[in-house]
Amino acid sequence: MALQNDAKFTFPTTRKALSTFPAVAEIGLVEYYEGGRRIGVTVKSKEQGEAVIAHVKANMKDEHPELICYAPKNPRGIEMKAGK
C-alpha cells in the first residue's frame, strides 16, 4: 500500500481481486493503524481466512498476505461488492 494515498483511499485493486472471492458477502475489508497504516480482511474462520489468502495470492501476484488472529481498534470499513 502506498503511504501517500489519501486517507479515504478505497484500495480498488484489492477490492477488485476480493470481489471474485466466492464468499465475498461474508468477508470485510478494513484499514487500521498498528505500527503504521495497514489493510486487512475480516473472516469468520481460519479456513475462510486461508481461502482468502489463496484467492489473493492467485489474483494479486505481488501480494503476500498472512493469516493473523487480530481485532484492530477503530478499523475503517471499506465497502466491497461481488464482481465477475
Gist?
The chain has 84 residues and is α+β, with helices and mostly antiparallel strands.
Structure explained in plain terms:
With 84 residues, the protein is of the alpha+beta class. 26% of the residues lie in helices and 18% in strands. It has 2 helices and 3 strands; from the N terminus they run αββαβ. Strands 2-1-3 form a 3-stranded antiparallel sheet, with no helix packed on it. The longest helix is centred in the middle third of the chain and has 14 residues, at 46-59. 11% of the residues are buried. The model has no long low-confidence stretch (mean pLDDT 90).
Terminal-residue CA separation? 24 Å
Low-confidence stretches: none
Order of helices and strands: HEEHE
Taken from the alpha-carbon principal axes, the silhouette is globular
The description of the largest β-sheet is: 3 strands, antiparallel
Q: How big a fraction of the residues is strand?
A: 15-25%
Number of strands: 3
Question: What is the helical fraction, as a range of percent?
Answer: 25-40%
Q: What topology, given as strand order, has the largest sheet?
A: 2-1-3
> What would you report as the Rg, rounded to the nearest angstrom?
12 Å
Q: Residue-averaged pLDDT, rounded? A: 90
Q: Treating each run of at least 4 consecutive H or I residues as one helix, how many helices? A: 2
Secondary structure class reads alpha+beta
